[in-house]
Amino acid sequence: MTSVHQAIPAQLAPPGEGRRFRAYTAKHLDTLTERAGLPEATRLAVRAVATVLPFRTNTYVTEQLIDWSNAPEDPIYRLVFPQPDMLPPDDVDRLSAALSSGAETAEVKKLAHEVRMRLNPHPAGQLVLNAAALDDEPLPGLQHKYPETVLFFPRQGQTCHAYCTYCFRWAQFVDEPDLKMASDDIGALVAYLHAHPEVTSVLITGGDPMIMGEPVLRRYLEPLLDPSLEHLESIRIGTKSLAYWPQRYVSDPDAAATLRLFEEVRASGRSLAFMAHFSHPRELEPPVVGEAVRRIRDAGAVIRTQAPLIRTINDDPAVWSGMWRTQARMGMVPYYMFVERDTGPQDYFAVPLARAHEIFRDAFACVSGLCRTVRGPSMSATPGKVCVDGVAEMAGQKVFVLHLIQARQPGLVGRPFFAHYDPAATWLSDLRPAFAEQFPWAPISSHPWN
Predict the structure, then answer these.
(1) Of all helices (H) and strands (E), which one includes residue 324?
(2) Residue after which a domain boundary falls, among 341, 363, 386
(3) Where among 57, 82, 116 does a domain terminate?
(4) What pLDDT score was predicted for residue 368?
(5) Local structure of residue 64 (DSSP, 8 states)
(6) What is the three-state SS of 343-402?
(7) Distances, alpha carbon 369 to alpha carbons 50, 365, 373, in Å
(8) What's the confidence (pLDDT) of residue 73?
């Protein structure tokens, strides 16, 4: 790869800056996109998009991962930098005009809010259908979609070392307080777990929980290790930190303390699952990533890898097969290929389901059994995780063959069902049932366990 250092703006990244964390935000966008070779009008459109969707990156990503000689086509550049055509042209034009005319901040925020509300900020009914309550009191920052699994959103973990342009949690990072999910009440989570012995796994999610320092992370994890929660079998941490700031486990001041905390989770008798988000093989290349992986595994955690299939970033079977093989060689477990969710700039990034299955199938065919732990392409939709198993001819019809990997209604897990083939479909809502009047799940209005 051509040296990525040559085009880093000197005023943004002094020599060696990539070895200590420094974030870049929307105020740095114009300088960075100018270095990417974008003309002034395009840079303005990028800034317009960034009034609606979040932007954040850091020195490690800009110095170590992006090939600036290939920007803006470089996949890692596209992974973190807003694109001028990610939103409808009329919206971009209106926002660009407001910015270029020096409109009041309040006016720009109003326009951005209008656009956000059309982007389905909380897909799959998560704010309502996943809501948890205890003694009829709602528990903000806690979600319970499947009987066995609870999601918890620690308040201090609702940002990331860098943001992905396709992130389905984008609403957590914008100036819309009513859209955010977060809690700092670990006592409420513990009480909820005592009241729900069917829960065997807690997923600490965000944002990125690993943005938190060890003392704060400990405050959330330690109470979950109490022997009275004997039904809790596993703790999961959802994170992109191995890709965006692996120094968190190697050279950060609290790296050793964090790894000791991981050891304590394992010593409590629970499994610790490190749910690592890798979008592209290049994120695995820097030597510091391998060292971070080794340290996390030595602390007793199992690292499982997952990412969505994204147009223009990783929509190539060779990208996925190479990524899975490298992950397995490093001791990680390939886990999921997701379908881009129906939120934010989905229309820009989505790959049709038929093509998504082809990419998964062709990548799967090129790897050994050790990589075939991976599942997908999977849609995290309202009824559950819907997997596209393939396309078949049945009773004179061309159909998608699908099944639920996980479901709100557990009895549906693993049962095949069918949908009429549609080469343009990108999400479950685009599909029509085949050989049945409706899909197998019943109407979903609430949780039976709340």
Answers:
(1) helix 317-329
(2) 341
(3) 116
(4) 97
(5) I
(6) CCCHHHHCCCHHHHHHHHHHHHCCCCHHHCCCEEEEEEECCEEEEEEEEEEECCEEEEEE
(7) 42, 10, 7
(8) 96
Q: Is 220 helix (H, G, I), strand (E, B) or coil?
A: helix
Written as six digits, the tokens of 31 are 């300088």
Strands (E), 194-233: 201-204
Tokens of 213: 């320092």
How many C-beta atoms lie closer than 10 Å to residue 217's C-beta? 23
Tokens of 361: 């199938």
Same domain? 189 vs 280: yes
Enclosing domain of residue 175: 123-341
Measure Cα distances from 377 to 58, 340, 355 in Å. 30, 10, 10
Q: Quick one: 171 and 251 in the same domain? A: yes
35 & 155 share domain: no
Which pLDDT tens digit goes with each residue over 211-251? 999 999 999 999 999 999 999 999 999 999 999 999 999 99
pTM tops 0.90: yes
Q: How far is CA 30 from the centre of its chain?
A: 26
From residue 216, alpha-carbon distances to 157, 211, 213, 258 in Å are 9, 10, 6, 10
Task: Name the strands in the sheet holding 397-407, side by side, starting at the edge strand that comes first in the sequence.
Answer: 131-134, 137-146, 149-152, 201-204, 234-239, 271-277, 302-309, 333-339, 375-381, 384-394, 397-407, 416-420
What percent of the chain has pLDDT above 90?
Answer: 90
CA–CA gap between residue 88 and residue 78 (Å, rounded): 18
| Cβ contacts of 224 within 8 Å, gap of 6 or more | 189, 190, 193, 202, 232, 235, 270
Q: Does one domain contain both 92 and 213?
A: no
> Residue 5: is its pLDDT beyond 90?
no
Assigned domain for 418 exists: no
Q: What is residue 178's DSSP assignment?
A: G
Q: What is the mean pLDDT of the chain?
A: 93
Please check whether residue 97 lies inside any domain of the structure: yes
H or E stretch covering 257: helix 255-267
Residues 132 and 227 in one domain: yes
Classify 441 as helix, strand or coil: coil
What stretches of 176-224 adopt beta strand conformation (E)? 201-204
Residue 423 CA to residue 419 CA, distance in Å, equals 12
Q: Contact, 5 vs 60, CB < 8 A?
A: no
The answer to the question of residue 392 being in a domain is: no
Number of domains in the chain: 2
Do residues 25 and 164 both lie within one domain? no
